[in-house]
Amino acid sequence: MKIALRSVHDEDLPVFFRQMTDPVALRMAAFGPQDPTDRDAFEARLKRVRASRDVLRTVLADGRVAGSAAVYGEPGEREVTYWIDRAYWGRGVATAALRALLAEVPERPLYARAAADNTASLRVLAKCGFRESVQARGFANGRGEEIEEVVLILDAGAPDS
Asked: How far is 161 from 129, CA to CA, in rounded Å?
């Protein structure tokens, strides 16, 4: 399967919204918007992101929209995030997309967060050179409760491919 990143097109937004309202994916990701079904809030957030210095890319798998990947935040505190359609889970799409994003955005350090029990995402981040920095607790909208989370860091000089 060929994985590529490209700039976000307007027609990607309904696909992203569908992906980000999948209840199984929301539970696994844990952290997300307070009300993932609020289409207006989703569109407003994406409009802000697309107009900012943040990097938002569409993830393509064999030319089809498979998800999104982004780098956001203030310099020195920037984080990576990705959301892959459940149909592509377990097929290396997230790892390939994150590697492509890291090649496109060379600044370091970069941070990532994942639910402590989201072993798939933690594995993707480790394959891309992130290492655990700290464990914390945070409220997870996708689960409606406070959970353990892992904060990871990718330092300058870390292998990211």
From this structure: 7
